[in-house]
Design goal:
Structural class: mainly beta
Strand content: over 45%
Radius of gyration: 31 Å
Shape: elongated
Length: 970
Amino acid sequence: MRGQKSARRAMRRGVLFYSAALAALAGAAGAQAQETETDDDVIVVTGSRIPRSNVENNVPTILLGEDQLESQGFENLADIATQLPGFAPSFGGARTQSTFSGATSSGLNTINLRNLSSIRTVVLMNGRRLPATVSSGTSSSVDLNAIPTANIERIEILTGGASAIYGADAVAGVVNIITKQDFEGFEFGASYGVALDEYDNKNPSGYVMFGTPFADDRGHISLTAQYDYQGLVSCRNRFLCAEDFAWLSPSTQVRGPAAYSGVGLNGRFFLGANSYTSRNGSYTDANGALIPFSVPIDGFNRNAVRSLAIPTERIMLAAEANYDLAPRINVFTEINYASTDTEGTFEGHPFQSQQPGSLFGGGPGVPGLQATIPVNNPFIPAALLTEAQNQGVTEITWWQRFEPLGSRGATNFRETMRFAAGLRGDFDTLAGLGSDWSWEASYVFGRTNVESNTEGLVATDRLYYGLRVEADPANPGGFRCVDPGARAAGCIPINPFAPYTQAMSNYLAVSAGARAENELEQGLAFITGSLFELPAGPLQVALGVESRRTSGFIDNDDVINRGLVTGNQISDNDQTQFETNEGYVETIIPVLADAPFAQALSLEGAYRWSETNDAEYETWKYGGEWSPIDGFRLRAMRARAVRTPTLIEVTGIFQTFGVVADPCTAARRNANATRAANCDADGVPANYAPPLVVEQSVAGFSGGNPNLVPEEATTLTYGLVAQPDFLPGFTLTVDRFEIELEGIINTVGRQTQANLCYDTVARSFCNNIVRGSNPVVPGANYVLNAVNDQLQNVREQTVKGVDIEASYTFPLNAIFASNGDPGELTLRGLVTIYDEVLLTQLPGTPPIDLLGFAGGSTSDQGFVERQGTFSATYDRGPVNLNWTTRWVGEADMSPFVTGFPKVDAEFYHSLRFGYDVSEGSEVYFGITNLTNEDPPFFATAASGTQALDTIPGYYDIFGRQAYAGFRLTF
């Protein structure tokens, strides 16, 4: 076995060496053949190092040209992507969905191909990688905020079989952004958009672009600068989220005061089974009785101060140049810089003195101190003090919304820079071998830096010491903090029973944040050409090597590490580096050509060997095409893909909160005999029925795992391409896709662990379950307070479906008799239909069916069964008119809730009118969501988004919007 392994390793490294040697013979490395056009103006696209058009590619490839990119007036690539049926909302990674996704994730715009998460899609620029973002959860994703749209020529979306060509992480596919590398002249453009009902979501945007040849056309240089701003949309201005909303059972929707948070502005003080508050400055009513806390009266409307869309300001610069060093050797470079400012605000901290997010210090296995109120605090109102003494209480548990101390929210400043340079060229033959060779050698360096700051935090250590107060002997009638060390550090006595003074607010309110970095280095070299002629055509081959280094860290402020401020306690992600070296080979072998029932028959394959941090893995693809008659082609491809662990997944630990349904409640404990027996063994009484707030606030710690291994996926695509001669201008592609993922990196799931602890005789995962006391359940020491978790290679998933694309361009005089030119019409449709989606959360457990659901949980989203985008574009002379319809099919809400009504199908219509005032210059205006459709409401915790009751990305949340702009070319 050892000898076989050594032989395989020697063979792989032989491929690596041979590829490098061929590239060296070529001169160093080569032409990005995908970026050229053939003599027939057929665009050659991504998916292979062997140049072919999108309809000749054996892997399904969607091509978005400049016209499609402009058709709906979007200035951000993330917004463009979500209009396509093959993409799903980036849950937690979008301007409308990332407010609650962690400070360093706030304001991101990532893409989610096949609903397999943005970390399983590789984003390229001109065939080369981009530096990843830095976030609290998706450190291998690319933030599309950093990419300008003004200089994009087209976007190519490869939906399978990409890892063997572009390396790890291309499980769902590849998005390749091709820029305008030959632009000549000066172009200036500007636009302005706004949501019409509330005059928000304001979107001013502008750019300048310049390009010119130099040195007698031996070189070319282009420069682009773009500014874009997407404005704030506040929840208070939208019916969707102006008021807190709860939909906990199919027949009961609650909106408004009854759904408000039980953590109120005036404080909530727990004594025995009751809790009390103040109204109009008094803790007693007209009869002198304590005022009990009432959610409809004393609760807090969280939605009113939340952001529906985070304001985002972007500045993007791009420069490209190339120069012919010799007749067939070209040197090139690309430089990109982008800065992004985002500000995501939401309500003040819901302080709950017994909850982990409000504790002073602590950590995994070490309980923090509760900032409760000692009964000797001199500020306690007399009526409350009397009740506390009557009940023998020594510490008062309390809750308060710290909104008066300032709203929370993450302000992020991100800078991304990228530099690429290399040589490329072509030659007729390689030392007499073959023909039509091209080559490239290039180097990419990229870096993303994040400066993140969170406002509205409260120092829990200061609060703890500030609540422990005594009379000040040096100041009669005054008070001081009890602890002498705290006094020496400037401690100020805190009175939570009255409005905070400015001195108290200044003392308690703090800001803290994180500094983070992600760095990429990529060196690649490849050579491609025809080795020799076969009877059916040339045998084409591509050989290449690639080396990548990615590294990064997240450094949280010390007060966050140590749990000295409200909110999640988070450890640092230490500086971590991944090094990957790869070699690959790709070939196309023609078998038959111009034969009966075989106008073309060819085989295709690729193999890539990779070594990452001493771990080896392989990716491959094989398939082919058969064209029985002209204009009709069948294609198929089977491939292996991988996704390697990221910085966030191998390091760090963080605190989390959320809903975990306790299996031992009276309503659930009798689901099976094993559960009931285990609940009894843990001392949970049979009549235990906690209030909802207890199950909504279950804490826990979750963290990375340095022992993770790469995920593996097997993909299969097969389908047909039809371009019949009798219907010129028409193309139809129908492709089946099947994706099987194994060893998916995820947590087991806190709910799953809780269930397995009580549903198994072996008591699986019970060491991660923490029970104890909670003031909302007086006298109980068995309340489910925390469930901890850790990332593992634990899941499996199957995704199957069909992609359909049809386009037809034809002159209208083919239909309407006309002496003049009635113009040209282009019809296009893209449809994705899923027919099987199964997720196995833990080996040996039954799979969860995710098919037909629009929502889910924050980690497991459903798949809308049918989606489509349809467009009609009319061109006649200077006039261009486009109508686009996006269709989101009928869906159920979530696989984790039952009995709720279906979500109706939605159709969103957009209209754009453009007029060419001269060649290359245009004025235009448009309207999106023309019929002003409102988003549907989802059951509580069913949308898959955090703190939002619908799903932006599927369902438009802005309403009817208008935009107008111009483009001038000189």
